[in-house]
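Cross-posted from the bioinformatics board.
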Amino acid sequence: MANKRIDEATGTETVGHEWDGIEELDTPMPRWWLWTFYATIFWALVYVILYPAWPLIEKGTEGVLGWTSRGELAQDLALEGERKAPILAALAHVPIERLPADSVRMRAAIAGGRAAFKVNCVQCHGDGAAGFKGYPNLNDDDWLWGGDLKAIEQTLLHGIRQPGDDATHASLMPAFGRDGIFTPQQIDQVAGHVLSFTGKARSTAEGAQLYADNCAACHGPAGEGNRLFGAPKLADAIWLYGGSRAEVEQQISAPRHGVMPSWQGRLDPVTIKMLAAYVHSLGGGEDFVDNAAEAEAPDAQP
Amino acid sequence: MRSPDVPADQLFTRQVTVHPKRIDGRFRRFKWLIMAVTLAIYYGTPWIRWDRGAYAPDQAVLVDVAGRRFYMFDIEIWPQEFYFVAGLLIMAGIGLFLVTSAVGRAWCGYSCPQTVWTDLFQHVDRFVDGDRNARMRLDAAPWGPAKLARRLSKWSIYLVISFWTGGAWILYFADAPTLVRAFWGGDAAPIAYATVAVLTFTTFIFGGFMREQVCIYMCPWPRIQAAMTDEKSLIVTYKDWRGEKRGSLKKAERNPGQFGDCIDCNQCVAVCPTGWDIRKGPDISCITCALCIDACDRVMTEVGRPTGLIAYATLEDCDRERAGAAPNPVRKALLRPRTVIYFLGWGGIGLALLFALGTRSHLDISVAADRNPPFMLMSDGSIRNAYTVKLRNMESRPRALRVAIEGLPDARMWSDQMGRADAVTTLDVEVPPDTTHPLRLYLAAPAGAPSRDFTFTVTALDPQGETDSSKARFAAPGDSE
């Protein structure tokens, strides 16, 4: 360091080293830069005191402000909850039959129902609510247990064949083949009659008789179904377990029965109301008034 | 400005404050005019009212970011029409090329905001501290109460102008009278205060202190201009063959014939807002404001020599004049292939924009088909597709629109507001003014319908009968696409 000297051309001191005649000027940092640097150091000290900073063995230092990203999230969620509270409170008070008349609340209910559907329902009914074999499609106009808002809400509340829920939709179709009620030939004849409703097979006198004796009580003389028992309409294009002759015969022989959990108790009433509104909005929802008249009718045609 | 007394091998020089002298002349008066016009446009435009009826704002020029509309007098631009703005920007670029190739850095010299505001702030300097010599004396004087008082009053005027400048900017983005009331009442959006603060700060710094350093060190345009100007461009030029060798009047009297017309009075440097000496030739520092022409012409008139020692001239003409020939007429500098091509490009884009603006449609339909599920089997065997259709009414009046389908003869449609029992082939919708109206439409075709392409059309049910269409696909079982 002995060779420090002032460079004549610039008037700046050199660092004192010399390599083959090359020297380096000891140009100081610009002052504004240096002060900015000091300011950042000061800021770092303040930050370490105020905010979580040092990782320790069990947990980090917490900072005197007590800030956490988790706490911030909780705050955001609470705020969001506050924002939604009046809408949810209003939804809780509106009877579901009145909802369609209130387009603002109906829209809110559909939006909320869409979110709840993605969490609770897509596992069986699919992301687009189009269902799978054995899991009903909720977009269409075919409803086993009713497609107006009230009926959908009822299904959501109590489920289908949910053990332990007295109000659940429960019905059982006899296993005509497995329990030996029909012979295989009879099953074939009944299947033919069932498929004849949609013109896919030719009916026989035996098949028609067997159907009238064993099936018409629930499914209706012309296969129109009955929502009281969740008996599917057989005279339409929609087949929950498939519409081929083999699939129909299998269902007559050893019917499968879908189960849907009752959501009462798992979801709050407002969420269930919103889910009903969403499912109703998918394109197949029925008007409550029309259906109310129909709901009184079934006794006439058991 | 870089200080002149620094050796050439030295790369770094300290900044020297430029104190341009007051000058009057035709270019100075032209600059006053441009300054008055540009400042009036900038500060005044948001206050111009324009009646658009009940459904649109009545501000003539308004960039409504929240509402996603851009209003300019009778023109209303929606976000998807932003190419108009892109076209305007391209026109501005080509216009800059055109002007630069013809008359050099006229943009820099007269109408660049940096130039206009620097000019304004330099007038403030003159108003508070006096002209060049007084300002230089005050600069050199030690700090005392008098100097402090002058500086504080000058900076306060700077600050007022800067604040007004920043404040005017936000008025383009909201209704001006409402925003001003909200601003002073403390109810304006935080972004309004932040924008005003930032623009006040930058105006204060750029106009009050950095001035010509912005042009010389920060702005890219002086670098690009070299490619835009050529030997046929009119630029501010010192005619050295006439001026050299420089000498004072006394020297010239003593040695007649030895000296040129330049009496070395340095007035051209004194009035220069960037402190450049035009006699050294064109430079990045020269913004071609032509104030040196005013100064030199005045001196030449006083000493009884012909004016135009410093003048707008092309480099080509300089060579011709040096050789004793007459310069080309100005027309030749302005009208040559390069400028004509620029002008044609500029005008062509302008005409195309005007044409597009005059013939654009104020009606739009866009269709998104549901993809999950792509189609739905109904209980009667028919096939249903669902679509989200958006109808855009870009007029500031409500319109009745008719939605129809073409290419699906058997299909019927219904919206989520009606039942399938009421399904129709055409659907009439009342769309509010200036709105995108979403529709949820279901389309059902009889059992066995194949999947195929079809068209949604929308027609306005008014005498103009504007129409638009959008292609869509009807999906059905067995659709492989």
